[in-house]
Amino acid sequence: MIDLTSTPIIILVILGSVGVALPVVSIALKERPSMISYGIATLIALFAAIGYVLYQLALDHVAPAAIFSQDVLVDDAFGALFAIAMLIVAIFTTVGSFSYMKNKANPSVYFSLILLSAIGMVLVAYATDLVMLFVAWELMSIPTYILVGFLKKDPISNEAAIKYFLFGALSSAIIIYGISLAYGITGSTNIGEVIQGFMVLDANLIPIGLLAVGMFIAGFGFKMGLVPFHMWLPDTYEGAPPTIATLLAAGTKKAGFAAALRVIVMGTVALSLDWTLALGIIAVMTMTVGNIAAIMQKNLARMLAYSSIGHAGYILIGLSIAPFSTIGLQGSMFHILNHAVMKGAAFIAVAGIVTALAVTHVDKLKGLARRMPITSLGLVISLLALAGVPPLSGFWSKLMLFGAAIDAGTVVWWGPWLAVAGVLNSALSLAYYGWIIRKMYFEGEKEKRIKEPKSIIAIMAFSIIFMVTIGVFPEPIIQFTEFATPAINAGFMP
Questions:
Q1: More exposed terminus of the chain, fewer Cβ within 10 Å: N or C?
Q2: Could you read off the pLDDT of 392-426 as tens digits, one per residue?
Q3: How far apart (Å, rounded) are the C-alpha atoms in residues 355 and 15?
Q4: Could you tell me which residues come within 8 angstroms of residue 434 by beta carbon, excluding any fewer than 6 positions away?
């Protein structure tokens, strides 16, 4: 029986109660509270949730990573790391919305949907049952379908919402098909029991097991933005409100990786499937397609969307070499945590630019450093961190990933080539990141400073401190990711 004081249950109670209360209060009161009131209530709930995660970790009430349970949820360090990353993103989205949502309708519904989506993301990370995983997946996805199209009078937002919904529905259908196959051949939906069942399958049932894993790869691959499942992502990120693009790029993508780690990787190990080279190829394709496409973009949000695809490829490097290097998967976990802050800060900076200037075209960013110096600085630091420039946080996670790939070369011939592809793609990313920086700092002469939204300034300040501090003192985060990283071998099986 799951403990009622366990982290996922408490988060569910905190976020769920506030998420349900916001629209109820809005309907019940004749004089509806201000948008700021709803935002502050949402922010308090999110801080309470992340505070409880940190409290449980500080008291060592959290189990080691990848401990499976007969319950549908498990309170382990793996889930805690993802919960922290996704709650940080939800906080960024909420704070950034203080300025973006000013004078917009239905703020109670907007903030309620953010909380409900955050619940889904967190529960995906803690789920140890396929049915629970799917329920959490839908709880995460359905609110975001609405949020992407929240600007009802904007045709671009509506188009983005329709595309996102169609591809999201397809991915959900594929996942539920995979769950059906797994249940049919193992008689259980508990992830641990399913994996045990995969390990003792009759020869004639192994193809069905492989098909189930393939369904999971395709279904979760849509949310992660892996090539060739990335088609929906640029249009959706461009058309969605920039605050919601933050939630998608830095939040829901992480939930996809959490699900992939719990189900796909462990399932392929159980089936003794040589999945590593295939994931390595997908990683190279994802990095390369994402970065090459980003270079050709003129819209800042669309450029960052393709950049997110590229970073999914970097994270996948760690997954592909996990059986051959102990540092590989740890590097992926570190980069996931880093990416939540780096990409979150970048998209929130875009939200600030849209709020203040109503522009997203890169050519219109000329002289932005003089008009919005703090927002520009936050955007620059996040872009350099994304590129892996030292001494910023992104450097260390990329170094771990590329170093692990080289280390794996003692076992598999293609390991060092993953590192080469990663370094070349990081250098390639500097081309379009540098283009943005040049426009902001070295072009335009007559621009005057304008008032920057205080909420955006707060996020930029936190992000800069995080990226620089972790870049200079990475050891605490490295130790935490080591604790949260599951061992990818047969020994971890329940």
A1: N
A2: 998 999 999 999 899 888 888 888 898 999 999 99
A3: 27
A4: none
